[in-house]
């Protein structure tokens, strides 16, 4: 048997914390815990963690702030936000901060374990696909999570991408030449049918085009496939 996967729970309500811990341990995971945003951030930075369950409303720092700080420090473990009501969670803001998924309280044990399992699998796939991509004078550095503009072998500029933009561009690069439907892209990249509307995806594509295309109105890399979605060409 391999080592148990480690899950960090950051939750300030003790009954919820205890219930999560018990069910995750029964499911075979090793569990770490913290009850404030500050302690959760410290544990996330210090410990090896395969996945984090992160409450949105915490003493010290909010879940949004913890998530952003972890991503800014290069931590790429999947993060599932826990929120009291669906309307409390600003999905676009949360995902831009670096969240991978969210669960609304109260949630069933079965739903939570399914989300944990799915996000752990996606995290493993991301590690397996950690190969740099070169296209049109750029290199997408998967380990550093940077888009580099190149002049031959020399880096001319590091181009800042949000987490969403980076994940989307990496997905396109990994599926070069394939016509991809909008629903397929959203499901494969974010793994949730409720991430947002197709218009949300289109806005991220438009933002990427402004950063990688010579003329964003006449794209050479992220191509629109009418009636389908998109196709990437290097």
Write out key terms for the chains shown:
234 residues, alpha/beta, Rossmann fold, Arc Repressor Mutant, subunit A, 2 domains, five-stranded parallel sheet, four-stranded antiparallel sheet, 8 helices, 41% helix, elongated
Architecture overview:
With 234 residues, the protein is α/β, with parallel strands linked by helices. A hairpin with a 2-residue loop joins strand 6 and strand 7. It is elongated, with a radius of gyration of 19 Å. It folds into two domains: 123 residues, Response regulator (Rossmann fold); 100 residues, Winged helix-like DNA-binding domain superfamily/Winged helix DNA-binding domain (Arc Repressor Mutant, subunit A, Orthogonal Bundle), CATH 1.10.10. It is 41% helix and 23% strand. The strands form three sheets. It has a five-stranded parallel sheet, sandwiched between helices. The chain has a four-stranded antiparallel sheet with strand order 6-7-8-9, covered by helices on one side.
